[in-house]
Design a protein that fits this description.
This protein is mainly alpha-helical. It has three domains: 50 residues; 98 residues, Orthogonal Bundle (DNA polymerase, domain 1); 166 residues, Intergrase catalytic core (hpI Integrase, Chain A, Orthogonal Bundle). Helices cover 48% and strands 8% of the residues. The strands form two sheets. It has a three-stranded antiparallel β-sheet, covered by helices on one side. The protein has a three-stranded antiparallel β-sheet with strand order 4-5-6, with no helix packed on it. It contains 14 helices and six strands.
Length: 358
Amino acid sequence: MATIKERTAKDGTARYTAEIRLKGYPAQTATFKRKTDAKKWIQDTESAIREGRHFKTTEAKRHTLGDLVDRYIKDVLPTKPKQTQAQQPQLERWKSELGSYLLSDITPALIVECRDKLLSETTPHGNIRSPATVVRYMAALSHAFTIAVNEWQWLEDSPMRKVKKPKEPKGRVRWLDDGERSKLLIACKESSNRWLYLCVILALSTGMRQGELMGLQWQDVNLKDGFLILHETKNGERRRVPLTGHALMLLREHAKVRRLDTSLLFPSKSDPAKPIDLTKPWRNALKLAEINDFHWHDLRHCTASYLAMNGASLAEIAEVLGHKTLNMVKRYAHLSDGHVSNVVASMNAKIFGGCDGY
């Protein structure tokens, strides 16, 4: 039901106050100088309410992007502890650029302007910010908008949907050849840190991320059957990791001298509740082995590359590394070309036999 009431303003002119009352919704009112405008507002607003659009539009005019960022940091980020450290400064940056704008005034064009500014800036390390980093900035804001649309009902749609992400370079694939691997392992064995060699062997043989490896606890390790369980993984799912051969043997030896004041496999000397920091011994080992352009995470690339070269399918590599999709492991496809050729040759031999043709 809608009504229009006429009254006289202080300046003597007419004012028309329109009111809409629909069952199940709060009353809506607005005042206009012309009666025709009041009638049009009633028609448009009633239609928007029935279609579920009106209140989202109203909320978008009540809240700024700064409000959105503040609420997201307060209510949502604590549920993602692994991402808080990276995403909070990213969101604060968006707030510093666009925080004063009402959500109803945030357009794809404004976001594009900020995106391009991020791409052109120099980081504290003196480098131009990479497209991959800008994509992460955009992903943080995009998820905040998604929550505002789906859960808070502050927006009808996310403006990020119309903003193109910067093109990222192809995924890095840096792995050690036989000679490099041999030199690195010798250097790790000679390290003053007694656990460096074991940790590198575990990383190479299992494909675990550094955080997963450093967070290992004894209750999650089954030395008898040769496997361990990762509870805290990047994709949020538990993963069973096989242990075999040299890695399993070394870990069994390590278990014989485990510390009893901590559940961690590799605790820090100064604080048993925290994992050891291998940064310095790792760098020293790389220097001793004369290996350049290689990071700890590249050990994971080594695992995937060795699997591919030994005939593992992309699906099998994804399962070992803990990827939900094949997109992340497609970068290793070229390393398994020989295996693919053998599969195709085997299939042809089976269905065509020795026939030269039909």
